[in-house]
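User: I've been trying to design a sequence by hand for this structure and keep getting stuck. Would you show me what you'd pick, starting by listing the structure so we're on the same page?

Assistant: Good idea, let's start from the same input. This is the structure you sent:
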């Protein structure tokens, strides 16, 4: 698959992180909330389909887990897991995520601009057309904000089975730039 460039958060494009280890839900998975950036052949970091940045400061890292159908005793097993990928040409404030095929879009995530003037918070909306167990880790990289506000992070998820509900979060990210 050809790697593509997506909007990158300031200070993220030159950071190389290790491949995920263990479950994406465990501390050895995506606990940092900063995504996975594969090193290019020359050793520099390659931003791409594994993460994107909204409003030039909110890094979004999606992942998923697939489980088997329940056995007679109700037991399920994990059959696969992975990172979400972004459809090319995301805008500054929205992105579309796919898990298995670039023509099968699973989640739309957006952060409308201008919400700080209304409520002194950044808003996040997401809508999914899936019943997969997925997780979105959104981290405020903190452009222009003091150190106490850097790294505000929220985790949004859907458990496997039920259709994913819409996410409407208008209060979590409080570090508005005046």
């Amino acid at each position: 698959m050809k790697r593509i460039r997506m909007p990158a958060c300031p200070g993220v494009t030159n950071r190389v992180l290790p491949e995920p280890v263990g479950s994406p839900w465990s501390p050895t998975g995506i606990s940092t909330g900063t995504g996975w950036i594969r090193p290019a052949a020359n050793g520099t970091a390659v931003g791409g389909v594994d993460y994107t940045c909204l409003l030039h400061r909110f890094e979004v890292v999606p992942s998923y887990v697939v489980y088997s159908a329940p056995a007679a005793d109700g037991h399920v097993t994990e059959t696969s897991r992975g990172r979400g990928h972004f459809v090319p040409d995301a805008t500054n404030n929205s992105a579309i995520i796919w898990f298995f095929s670039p023509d099968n879009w699973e989640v739309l995530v957006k952060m409308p601009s201008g919400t700080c003037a209304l409520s002194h918070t950044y808003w996040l909306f997401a809508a999914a057309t899936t019943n997969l167990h997925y997780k979105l880790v959104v981290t405020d990289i903190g452009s222009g904000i003091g150190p106490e506000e850097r790294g505000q992070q929220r985790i949004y998820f859907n458990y496997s089975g039920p259709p994913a509900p819409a996410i409407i979060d208008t209060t979590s990210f409080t570090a508005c730039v005046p």
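That's my pick for every position. To get oriented when you compare it with your attempt: The chain has a mean pLDDT of 74. The chain has one domain: 38-173.
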